[in-house]
């Protein structure tokens, strides 16, 4: 027993070490050329004259291309500028990961950011990803010394560019509950800045549209009004450019850092996420006489007008504003602007300088690269328009080559991480050896699941559609339990009824949220049916709260009289219901209906932050009372663990979207039905594992960064706190698995009462945790092996890298913190109160 416990503890201590060692080799910082670029001296003379001397760079976070260009748009004024020729529209392809920080890096440096920036993006306080020492178009504009640098909006810019801006006012990008103030804080500075002539660069980064997407999706009733609000800013700036002499040579760039998918999230590689709008605006653009049809026809792939790379912005701004292209740029000058230089020599020189700059990156990466690139002298091609096209084609080929180049993986760390993961697997097998080799036939389904899952990780399509594996495996397992119990039960009719209900509830859970990649936007119960049948939604929500209220009132607070216990439970439920009503009224009013709408409209005056704090505080007090009461009460008279489960249930309801709350009621029914079955320890562990993963996907989770739900990350939080927001975000996204950890604990305690493992039951928890660790280490090793073998695969950054991040969350968050930590604590408490 001591050896098994030591093996289990050692295995779990090694898990985070293996994860970090592998990650340090898989997500390294990419090297860059230091210093600021300088203009090279060419035989054809000085660089072409700049068209503009000021730039207003307006980023509307998550501005998907169709939001500006399609018929379903509130950017009417911007569309009028496009049709008049005063604006040039593009779709700027954003490579994965479609997260703000790496996108800003791509826009400002013209390079391809590291996937590690996904982690740094969420760690908002991080400063290690600063671009202070890198060459960017911002640093080039500052080096010109022709004016001050100002920035208003997302404070990611202030972290990336410390001591760059002379005037700034930053706002937190992660406070997604705010649709208005976060943008008003930017807009209030614009009139004052437009009246000044002491700046050459103004960066505006609006966050409200992105927050609306995260909370309520791209079809939210808040979305079109936000379009109009941003369009009015464009109108205000453009009118100032027309009327103020000192703004005549100002270029306004309107763009998104990324787009969003049909749910409103981003981070992955879906067409909507990788297709932000890009519009260059100035009265000067009318000189070439180009105009475009607006609104544009619907494009299923969101590619409106010409598609360029986001990295192309940096060299294009360099030519338009008259500064050298940043040294680490991989972008290609957008050729649509070439007609603004009537001299053919200027056009060739722009492309030649871009090509030579990219050539320096290519030769630094591939030392054996010979000088087969662009010509060294402008005059050799000055009379040939074909040579001009040749220069640009070479440039695009070099860009594709460098953009697709694999990261500088540290193979020694990749191998070391896998060796450590293999060691943890061996240790976990050793910890569970007695039960594996003692009843191999019983453990065979769990082993088969582990092996099949590991094999599946080597295929990108299976990773993207992983939920199908867990749905079908869970259904098959429940059917197998039916068959197994059918041999033992005398009342076959009752067993059949239980099994059929188990399969029906599981089927309903599977259809609740469409997830994955191929069918994520298809109709489902949560987002489609309940949105159209709001009365049914609120009826089920009321039933869920009443279920929890009845359970708390009947089993909790035993020292109080029944009516007092009922009053306390009612107060908790009322606080939770009113919070959810106010939350839905503020973020998703389209889900309200009838009397529910009236209740929400009349229940005003208390902030959402305070409401959340009230319910969290109430739950915490109830937990403390339950624990203290259980210690002082006679054994077997206080259902302490059931009360703790009900309080956790209430907390999980609070952290769930309104349309997902009924899923918790479904899981409660599943839990009740499973208690009827006579499950052994191995069967219970296998069931718990399957339902943890199946419930994660049923709640809408996936292996894409874009499925991370931030809608409840700020419940009770008034500002950005990395620990509080991190915990709340994890709970919101792992609600299903956390529920099943608690439910499993109750079933383990029931199994202990039955004496399934003898009077002492010393190895019950040890065997359960050992088997879970076997799967965790096996799956982690499989993902590491897949990432190593497929490190040059086309989908390494869009599929396998996000999967590794999710494996980290499952291993560190769900397995170590929830199953090993919280699960063990709950079981230990249960043994004290039994």
UniProtKB/TrEMBL annotation:
Compartment(s) of residence: Endoplasmic reticulum membrane
GO annotations of cellular component type: endoplasmic reticulum membrane
Annotated ranges, domain GPI ethanolamine phosphate transferase 2 C-terminal: 406-831
Membrane topology value: Multi-pass membrane protein
Pathway(s) this gene product operates in, as recorded in its UniProt entry: Glycolipid biosynthesis; glycosylphosphatidylinositol-anchor biosynthesis
Keywords: Endoplasmic reticulum, Glycoprotein, GPI-anchor biosynthesis, Membrane, Transferase, Transmembrane, Transmembrane helix
Bilayer-crossing regions: 6-29, 414-437, 443-462, 469-485, 491-509, 537-557, 563-583, 604-627, 647-667, 679-700, 720-748, 769-796, 808-829
MF-aspect GO terms: CP2 mannose-ethanolamine phosphotransferase activity
One of the GO BP terms on file: GPI anchor biosynthetic process
Pfam families to which the protein is assigned, alphabetical: Phosphodiest, PIGO_PIGG
Leader sequence segment: none
Functional note: Ethanolamine phosphate transferase involved in glycosylphosphatidylinositol-anchor biosynthesis. Transfers ethanolamine phosphate to the GPI second mannose.
Family: Belongs to the PIGG/PIGN/PIGO family. PIGG subfamily.
Stated name of the protein: GPI ethanolamine phosphate transferase 2
